[in-house]
């Protein structure tokens, strides 16, 4: 069964450093998403991406965040200057089009720890 | 903007049916009901969705009341591996994002 792959599985970074979280969506999917989940809290929407541009973003997705699809297969989330409160699980998801394609497929996540 | 209400937790005996309720009294005519689950700290997993009719797939059944104000997700023979947080989400099909609430923590017990 096709999978969404996220790397790394765990990243530790110092406060103020830039991090890039990587995702390889399912190959024929067209919609891409980033979510985060702070420990013990709910899954929160960050951003959606379609046709090489951001479709929608939440209030969490401020100027410190950016997304990119650099080469047609990878989908990245960049945090420019990490803060302690950015520590969370970050999930990438993708979705196809057409009948029966409404369910998102999520990756297994990247655990980001900011120290 | 809670569109759905779910009990915070439920228990179920292994091998029995797990029936997870969801209230969505303000659902509009073009909004679908989606169910996802999250096992421990894994990424959420899509289970099923429906508009008006009951739906069944290899994972579960979705029963939607005639007035569409509530629904029930049924896992017909729960196993220990079905222990997870289950999310009921109401969403217009063409919306660009899926918004998760607190969900129901289902614990399947031996």
Give a structural overview.
- The complex is a heterodimer of chains A (115) and B (110).
- The termini of chain A are far apart.
- Chain A has strands spanning 5-7, 10-13, 19-24, 31-37, 44-50, 53-57, 65-68, 75-79, 88-95, 105-106, 110-114.
- Helices cover 0% and strands 49% of the residues of chain A.
- In chain A, a hairpin with a 2-residue loop joins strand 5 and strand 6.
- In chain B, a hairpin with a 4-residue loop joins strand 5 (55-56) and strand 6 (61-64).
- Chain B has a five-stranded mixed sheet with strand order 1-9-8-3-4, with no helix packed on it.
- By secondary structure, chain B is mostly beta strands.
- Classes of the chains: A mainly beta (115), B mainly beta (110).
- The interface between A and B is medium-sized, with 26 and 21 residues.
Give a brief outline of the structure.
The complex is a heterodimer of chains A (115) and B (110). By secondary structure, chain A is mainly β.
Structural descriptors:
heterodimer; A: 115 residues; mainly beta; seven-stranded mixed sheet; four-stranded antiparallel sheet; 11 strands; 0% helix; 49% strand; B: 110 residues; five-stranded mixed sheet; 9 strands
The helix tally of chain B amounts to 0
As laid out across the biggest beta sheet of chain B, the strand order is 1-9-8-3-4
Distance between the termini of chain B: 37 Å
Strand content of chain B: over 45%
Instruction: Report how far the terminal alpha carbons of chain A are from each other.
Output: 36 Å
Beta-sheet strand percentage of chain A?
A: over 45%
Q: Major sheet of chain B: size, sense and barrel closure?
A: 5 strands, mixed
Rg result of chain B: 13 Å
**Number of DSSP strands of chain B?**
9
Tell me the structural class of chain A.
mainly beta
Secondary-structure element string of chain B: EEEEEEEEE
Poorly predicted spans of chain A: none
Radius of gyration of chain A from CA coordinates: 14 Å
Specify the overall morphology of chain B: globular
Count of DSSP-assigned helices of chain A:
0
Q: Overall mean pLDDT score of chain B?
A: 93
Strand element count of chain A:
11
């Amino acid at each position: 069964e096709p999978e969404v792959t996220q790397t790394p599985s765990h990243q530790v970074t110092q406060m103020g450093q830039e991090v890039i979280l990587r995702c390889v969506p399912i190959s024929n999917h067209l919609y891409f998403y980033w979510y985060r989940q702070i420990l013990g809290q709910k899954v929160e929407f960050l951003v959606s991406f379609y046709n090489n541009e951001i479709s929608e973003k939440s209030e969490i997705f401020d100027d410190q965040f950016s997304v990119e699809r650099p080469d047609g297969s990878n989908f990245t989330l960049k945090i420019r200057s990490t803060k302690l409160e950015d520590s969370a699980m970050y999930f990438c998801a993708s979705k196809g089009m057409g009948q029966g394609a409404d369910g998102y497929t999520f990756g297994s996540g990247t655990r980001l720890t900011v120290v | 903007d809670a569109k759905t209400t779910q009990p915070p937790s439920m228990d179920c005996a292994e091998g029995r049916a797990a029936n997870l309720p969801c209230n969505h009294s303000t659902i509009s005519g073009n909004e679908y009901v989606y169910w996802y689950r999250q096992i421990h700290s894994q990424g959420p997993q899509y289970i099923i969705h429906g508009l008006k009719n009951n739906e069944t797939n290899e994972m579960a059944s979705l029963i939607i009341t005639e007035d569409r104000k509530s629904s029930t997700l049924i896992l017909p023979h729960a196993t220990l591996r079905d222990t997870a947080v289950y999310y009921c989400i109401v969403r217009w099909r063409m919306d660009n994002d899926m918004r998760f609430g607190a969900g129901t923590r289902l614990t399947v017990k031996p």
